[in-house]
User: Which sequence fits this backbone?
């Protein structure tokens, strides 16, 4: 099991950094440079090296991304740098309070300078896993403002989706469900609406005590397999893979 | 997971029980190889990678493995149990099914 978990962690870290890539220019160069350093760091780790958080390239790159964000304060290109800072502040091996301060500084910049920038539509979906780093309540306040002030439907719907996620984690299931339903009804063409629709399906059809919806697929030989063909049996459905 | 599942399927052979895999490996051939190498005898649907896997998407699967346990009437009874806990739950549901017949 361990190698798979490690591979997934490494892949998730690499994917996270790659997804926020700028189109061109100085920031793209900085991101490429970081990407290479990070890949080297993980390769050394996977080859059997000790995991030393203080040697993670995020330590060296943090001041550089911050300098870029400060030099370009208020410009659209600062958004990707601020996003990188929020995503990477937890990897710098600093204590929790310091790295949270760094991430919150970046969030404040976004809030003060970019709340009405349609470019947030690309950034908000990538902020989904930041609650542990920034704090759910602080992020929720940010998303509320995006929903009120941003002109982009994608940005608003994504902010609602992330807000629903935070509400769900705070055991406010009803509030989360209401947000998901609003996304689907008011912003039906957005990417967030497709995701919200899946969560609503889970709420409506996949809870304990509900009759499982039937599905059909094929085995590796192309033979049809239907869930309902096993009716009468106790069935364990195992979604799995080693990809 | 796999070693336990293999033993569990053996232990429960002859009982009204099915382990049904919904696999998200890279390709049908990749799964074929895993089935053979790991001696997986229970039914498996090849659904495609997480992005393509229609059943996993419909069931809103966001982490792997994700496990649902259904009783003999197809009602969802447990989510997220693994290994020994999963087997214990299956045994209880088998007993309930037998008592109800």
Assistant:
């Amino acid at each position: 099991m361990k190698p798979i978990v490690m591979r997934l962690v490494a892949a998730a870290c690499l994917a996270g950094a790659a997804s926020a890539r700028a189109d061109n220019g100085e920031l793209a160069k900085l991101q490429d440079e970081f990407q290479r350093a990070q890949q080297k760091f993980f390769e050394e780790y996977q080859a059997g090296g000790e995991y030393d958080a203080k040697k993670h390239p995020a330590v060296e790159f943090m001041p550089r991304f911050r300098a870029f964000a400060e030099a370009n304060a208020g410009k659209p290109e600062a958004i990707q740098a601020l996003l990188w800072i929020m995503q990477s502040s937890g990897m710098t091996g600093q204590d929790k309070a310091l790295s949270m301060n760094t991430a919150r500084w970046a969030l404040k910049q976004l809030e003060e300078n970019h709340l009405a920038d349609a470019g947030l539509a690309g950034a908000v979906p990538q902020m989904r896993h930041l609650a542990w780093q920034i704090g759910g309540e602080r992020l929720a306040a940010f998303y509320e403002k995006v929903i009120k002030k941003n002109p982009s439907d994608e940005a608003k719907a994504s902010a609602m989706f992330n807000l629903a996620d935070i509400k769900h984690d705070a055991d406010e299931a009803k509030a989360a469900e209401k947000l998901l339903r609003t996304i689907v009804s008011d912003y039906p063409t957005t990417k967030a609406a497709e995701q919200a629709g899946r969560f609503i399906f889970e709420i409506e059809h996949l809870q304990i005590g509900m009759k499982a919806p039937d599905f059909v697929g094929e085995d590796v030989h192309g033979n049809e397999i239907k869930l309902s063909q096993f009716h009468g049996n106790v069935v364990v459905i195992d979604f799995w893979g080693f990809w | 997971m796999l070693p336990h599942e293999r033993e569990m399927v053996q232990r429960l052979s002859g009982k009204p029980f099915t382990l049904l895999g919904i696999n998200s490996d890279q390709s049908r051939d990749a799964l074929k190889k895993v089935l053979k190498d790991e001696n997986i005898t229970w039914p498996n649907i090849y659904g495609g990678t997480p992005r393509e896997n229609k059943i996993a998407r419909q069931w809103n699967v966001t982490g792997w493995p994700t496990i649902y346990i259904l009783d003999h009437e197809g009602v969802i009874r447990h989510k997220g149990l693994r290994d020994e806990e999963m087997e214990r739950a299956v045994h209880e549901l088998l007993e309930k099914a037998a008592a109800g017949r």
Summary: Chain A touches chain B at residues 1, 198-199, 201-202, 206-213, 215, 217-220, 225, 227-228, 230-243 (CB under 8 Å). The first strand of chain A starts at residue 216 and ends at 218. Residues 1-114 of chain A form one domain.
